[in-house]
Write a structure and sequence with these properties.
Layout (H helix, E strand, L loop, with lengths): L6 H8 L5 H14 L1 E7 L4 E7 L1 E3 L4 E7 L3 H8 L2 E8 L4 E12 L2 H7 L16 E14 L4 H10 L8 E5 H13 L1
Antiparallel strand pairs: 1-2, 1-5, 3-4, 4-7, 5-6, 6-7, 7-8
Length: 184
């Protein structure tokens, strides 16, 4: 079994620049999938639920409509660190995003995010129970490639070699990419 690394050691390893093609793949996968498992912490356990994501790459945020009467609002308020897991299982591609979430009652934003899936929960965008959760990505990973299932089997058997099937990125790298893209 490999030796455990501290968070500082992991952070130093992540400082390498992530090619913009990889970040493009992250945003493209999230855009394609649109639904993710939104995980919060209750103070004693993790809770996940599927939610429809609205992406704003220009602002580097992911937004969700939520109902103030549900538990997740209290959980986000008390423990704002969340995890989002997007999965395109048919193509074996996965994105995991960790970040800081914030809840607002921005009625203009509610109207701008309103879409057909929201009608499953509320009659219209004027429902006073609708809130917006905004997640600012801080860390994440892109996982998967052709043959991932075989690679995992080989990994458990101890016969696999490192591949480019997974990549981690940090907030620093996301912002570095945004600055680099703005200069082009």
């Amino acid at each position: 079994m490999g030796k455990s690394l501290s968070l500082n050691q992991l952070s130093r390893r992540r400082r390498r620049r992530i090619p913009h093609e990889r970040l493009d793949r992250v945003w493209a996968l999230m855009e394609t999938v649109r639904f993710c498992m939104f995980t919060t912490w209750t103070g004693s356990r993790l809770r996940s639920r599927p939610m429809s994501a609205s992406l704003s790459r220009d602002e580097n945020v992911i937004r969700f409509l939520t109902d103030v009467r549900q538990h997740k609002d209290e959980e986000v308020r008390d423990f704002p660190q969340v995890c989002l897991a997007f999965a395109d299982s048919s193509n074996q591609k996965y994105v995991s995003i960790s970040g800081h979430a914030q809840i607002t009652n921005d009625r203009k934003m509610v109207k701008s995010l309103w879409s057909l899936p929201a009608k499953a929960w509320w009659q219209d965008a004027d429902d006073p129970n609708i809130r917006v959760i905004t997640v600012n990505p801080e860390d994440g990973g892109l996982h998967g490639c052709a043959g991932t299932v075989q690679w995992l089997a080989d990994r458990f058997a101890g016969t696999s070699k490192p591949t480019d099937c997974s990549a981690r990125f940090s907030k620093r790298e996301v912002f570095a990419f945004r600055r680099q893209a703005a200069r082009q």
